[in-house]
Write a structure and sequence with these properties.
Blueprint (H helix, E strand, L loop, with lengths): L17 E4 L4 E4 L101 H10 L1 E3 L15 E8 L19 E9 L6 E6 L4 E4 L2 E4 L5 E4 L2 E5 L11 H12 L5 E5 L1 H10 L3 E5 L3 E3 L4 E3 L2 E5 L1 H9 L9 H19 L2 H4 L2 H14 E4 L5 H11 L7 E5 L2 E3 L9 E3 L3 H10 L12 H9 L12 E6 L6 H12 L4 E7 L8 E4 L4 H11 L6 E3 L3 E2 L5 E7 L21 E3 L8
Parallel strand pairs: 3-16, 4-11, 6-17, 20-21, 20-25, 22-23
Antiparallel strand pairs: 1-2, 4-5, 5-6, 7-10, 8-9, 11-16, 12-15, 13-14, 17-26, 18-19, 22-25, 24-25
Amino acid sequence: MDAQGRGRSENIDPADQWVLNPATGEYELRLGSSAAQSPVPGPRRTSGPRRAGSASRGRKPAAGGPSAPGTTPETPDREMPPQRRRRGAPAEPSPGRRGRRPEKKSKAKKILMWSGGTVAFIVLATAGAAYLYIDHLNDNISSASSDGASTGGFSKDRAINILLIGTDKRTGKGNSAYGDKGSVGHADTTILLHVAKDRSNATALSIPRDLIVDVPDCPTTLEDGSQKVIPGTPGTRFNTSLGQGERTPSCTARTVTELTGIKPDNFMVADFNAVKTLTSAVGGVEVCLNKDINDKDSKLNLTKGKHVVEGEQALAFVRTRHSVGSGGDLSRIGLQQQFLSALMRKLKSNDTLTSPSKMLKLAEAGTKALTVDSELDSIGKLKDLGMELGKLNVKNLTFVTVPVIDNPAETVKVTVVPAPGKADEVFRSIRSDVSFTAVKQKKKKEAAAVAARLKGEKADPSEVRVRIFNGGAEAGSASSTLTWLQTEEGVTKSENAGNAPAELDKTTLEYAPDQAAEARRLADIMGLSGSAMKEGKSVNNAQGLPTMTLTLGADFEGAGVPLTGPAKAPDVDKSTADKVQCAE
C-alpha cells in the first residue's frame, strides 16, 4: 500500500502499527488515536474482467424429470452472497481505544490463503480494527462470471475443488518481451486443487496445456455484460479453452468437468504479474537446480545449487522448459510443481506467518494479482477459503499430472492424449476423495461398523420404498435413476423428489433402523459402500408411507454405474510439498 493508501496515519506504514500483545500472544493493529481514520478510495480498474460483485447471480431454469408434489425442480441451486458492508460505515473501535468490549477474545490474527495459476496459498493477517484496509482490499479484487460452470461456491462441510488457471497473457510492465506479446491469454498452466472433506490431505492435479480434449459449448458473459453461447470444439488443445473465440475462465471450468467429471467449486486466474509481485511480497522463494541453466527463451540464468528467486527471476524459473527434462511442457509442469512446493513451505514457515509486514504485502499483492470467479469476490469469502486451506499439512499435499501418452494421430508428436485407463483411475480417485498420500486411517472399530451395514438380510426389490434427490449429480440424474430402478431393477415403490436442499460430494442413503433390509438391497443394486449408508430416520412419501432417502452426490456417474470408489489411489508419478526437489 502506498503512502496515500488507507490505514496510514502520519506516513506510518500499517505494517509498523502491528504490535505483539503480551496478554494474548497475538499481533494487533494499533491505529493512532489522534484522529479518526477516514476512507480513502483505493485504485479501481477500468478494464478487464468485471469488478467484484457485478456478476449476475440468477438461478438456472428448471430441468430434469418428473418431481414429487411440493418438491424443488431438479436444477442446481445457488445461495445469494452476503451483502457487503456499506462503504464509509463506522468501524469497530480499535484495540486500545475507549469503548473496547471487555473480556472479549481478540480476533486480531486471522490467516487467509488462496491460490492461482503458478502461485498458491497466499497469507493474510488482519485485525478487527482494520475494516478500512479490508475495504480497500475488496476494491482490489477483480472477478469474472462463473456462468453456472461451478457448483456455486465451496462449502466448509464437504470436499473443495478449486481451479487455478495461469494465463500466458503478456500485459503488464516488462512482459511484452516474453514471446507472443499479442496473446489473448490462454490456459497455459492449469491446476485442479482438490482438498479432502476432512482436510487431512489435498491433491493438486496439473492439466497439460497440449492435452487433446473436447471443449464443450460454453454459455458466457462477455466483458460488456452481454451473454452468448460460444460453440464447443472437439479434439482440440486444452489451452484453447480460455481466450480462443472470446472464451472466459468459466469455459475452462466446463472443459475440466468434461475431462475429469469434477465440477469446480470456484476458479482463480493469475497472469505473469502475479508470479512476480507475489514472490517479491513473500521475500523470494528458494529453488534448487542440479545443473547450470542459461535459457535464452525464458531468460533464466542460474548456476547449479540453491537460489532464492523473486520477481522477474521467479517468472523466468516457472516459464523454463527447453533447459529441463525433455525440453517440453511436461518437464515444465514438473518444474512448476517444485516451485509451488517451495512457495508453500515458505508461506507456512514462521518467517512468513510471524511477519505482519510480509502478510500485508501479500494481501495487497494477492488481491491485485488474481481474478476470481463471481462466487468468490470478497475478502470475507477468500478468508473463509483460506481458513479451510490452512488446515492442510504440506506433507499431505500431493502434486500429480494427468497421465498422458503421445497423440497417436500425429506423425510429428506435438500433443498428448489421456493415458487409457490410468487417467480415468486418477480422476475417479479424486472424485471419490481418495488420498494420494498415506494419511491416518479410520479406527478399526469404526471401519468394522461401516462394513457391517452391508451384512444381513436383504428385502425384495418390490418392497423397497425410496425417494430420490439430486444433490450434485448432473441435471436429470434423479429422473434417469428412477426410470432405471423401476423398469430394470424392480424397485417400483420409488419416486423423484427433485433437488436436494444442499449439494453433496458423495451419494448417501438415509434409512430408519427398521428399514435396514431395504437399505441393504438398494445398496446392493446401486453399488453403494457401507460408508454411504446413514442410519437415521425415514420420511413419508406421497402416499404417506415411510420411505428411505437416496441423495445422488457429485460422485454419481449414471444409472447402473456402481458407486463403490477405489480403495486406494493409482500408482502414478507424484511429489509432495514437504520434499525439496532439484530441477534436472
